[in-house]
Amino acid sequence: xxxxxxxxxxxxxxxxxxxxxxxxxxxxxxxxxxxxxxxxxxxxxxxxxxxxxxxxxxxxxxxxxxxxxxxxxxxxxxxxxxxxxxxxxxxxxxxxxxxxxxxxxxxxxxxxxxxxxxxxxxxxxxxxxxxxxxxxxxxxxxxxxxxxxxxxxxxxxxxxxxxxxxxxxxxxxxxxxxxxxxxxxxxxxxxxxxxxxxxxxxxxxxxxxxxxxxxxxxxxxxxxxxxxxxxxxxxxxxxxxxxxx
Length: 245
Known about the structure:
The protein is an alpha+beta fold. The chain has five helices and 14 strands.
């Protein structure tokens, strides 16, 4: 596997139609595909995450990409390709890693006519549906609670645990108390609607997670990182970025 950072060159802004394309998750995937495609019958074998601004400066668009093969220039002169780095971390059980993940957390509700699992629901909207009618609904609280539950379910199947530590919270009596909870930040909730000609639009949401994890099963964990977390991987979801804690 290879981890690459790919950036649009500063003069790419001279082509407005290209900027319109990469401004959407679907367009970004199509543009990146040309850098990784090797054969007409090839299926997607990479995960990506779009980063706007950040350390590159306001308005600069770049992508982190985890792929089976390194990218190659498509000859259009629009991309700056940093040298890809082999992704082969040596991990042991108990290692602590900082992580950043953009994902589309969902939960399945109900069953189909044939007994198969039902439709995927955005975890925040699902929490709103389960909420009592007429009672105030706190989106921020629901996002933190349901996002953490979703990621904990992912962790149970992917060979890691969310690191926990003391956190100060305000108790029901108004006094500050110390509790132990996951060292996790959940924010950046966004809803997306992608239009498709002649077809129903694709709807999904994205959430940003940042925190610390503890590796439990290194082989299982790395295999899951290579596959990605959650649905909508074709639209920039599922890539977990890692660094030593």
